[in-house]
Amino acid sequence: MGLNEQQRTVRVDIGELVLDGFGRVDPERVSEAFQAELGRLVRERGVPLAADGGQALDALAGLPPLPASLSARRLGQELARAVHTGLSGGGEVKR
Questions:
Q1: What number of CA atoms fall less than 13 Å from residue 75's CA on the CB side?
Q2: What is the superkingdom listed in this entry's lineage (predicted)?
Q3: Phi, psi torsion values for 78, nearest 5 degrees
Q4: Which of 67, 81, 82, 89 is 20 to 30 A away from residue 30, measured at CA?
Q5: Is the pLDDT of residue 21 over 60?
Q6: What would the DSSP string read from start to end of 4-25?
């Protein structure tokens, strides 16, 4: 990081993820994959909706559907990508 660059902290708190229609998946594996992928996306691409400072969002809606046949790891990764898309301005933001 150069002298003129500021390190920014982004905090994403997700109270609950509801997975309907996915059958039996290991919630811990989904959560681990979700956290790892969302962390990677935030580090690499940032969070455009947070560019102007702290913002609180109540919900993200209108995100792309996910195939029900995904493994727990892939489901976590794809879910993180969908959430990051919402945090980047895709989907509908409820404040």
A1: 21
A2: Bacteria
A3: -65, -35
A4: 89
A5: yes
A6: TPPP-------------S--S-
